[in-house]
Design the sequence.
């Protein structure tokens, strides 16, 4: 009997490893995320190709890269000033939204004249960045890939999912804020 108790005690001590963590039933590999990344890369490459074809076909204008993924050309350039909008400035502007095929989605009359506090109000990403490239009394046409326009949500009205756009932006006035002088 004594041997049986020692034997059971040895078995009990060798079998006690402590709590073992539960393993997940399903292991996620990230393949859905990877597919989404690849799809977005392909879409951006396709849209950049469209932009380059538009630029190549427009021999009348000189295009510039914004550095943020969009391209633009000036319609009216202002050489009288060097000041560009900075954070907190109030900018009065007009813009339109058209497709790469020149179909009007929103005209500047539909949108109207807006006053925008730089970096403090919500506009689509391309427009927010483009305003800071223009000076007062300047006008330029920008080509935006869908990632800089309304993205995969669209505007839930006239602009669909992943639609690249053109926009002519005119800065009417820049009201400089005291901190920016």
Sequence:
């Amino acid at each position: 009997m004594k041997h049986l108790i020692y034997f059971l005690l040895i078995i009990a001590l060798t079998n006690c490893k402590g709590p073992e963590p539960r393993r997940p039933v399903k292991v996620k590999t990230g393949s859905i995320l990877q597919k989404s990344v690849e799809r977005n890369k392909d879409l951006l490459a396709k849209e950049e190709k469209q932009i380059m074809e538009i630029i190549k076909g427009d021999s009348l204008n000189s295009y510039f890269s914004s550095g943020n993924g969009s391209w633009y050309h000036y319609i009216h350039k202002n050489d009288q000033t060097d000041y560009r909008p900075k954070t907190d400035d109030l900018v009065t502007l007009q813009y339109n939204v058209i497709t790469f095929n020149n179909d009007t989605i929103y005209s500047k009359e539909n949108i109207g004249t807006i006053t925008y506090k730089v970096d403090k109000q919500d506009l689509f990403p391309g427009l927010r960045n483009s305003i800071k490239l223009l000076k007062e009394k300047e006008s330029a046409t920008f080509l935006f890939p869908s990632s800089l326009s309304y993205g995969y949500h669209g505007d839930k009205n006239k602009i669909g999912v992943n639609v690249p756009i053109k926009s002519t932006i005119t800065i009417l006035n820049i009201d400089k804020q005291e901190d920016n002088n």
Observations:
- The radius of gyration is 29 Å.
- The chain has a mean pLDDT of 89.
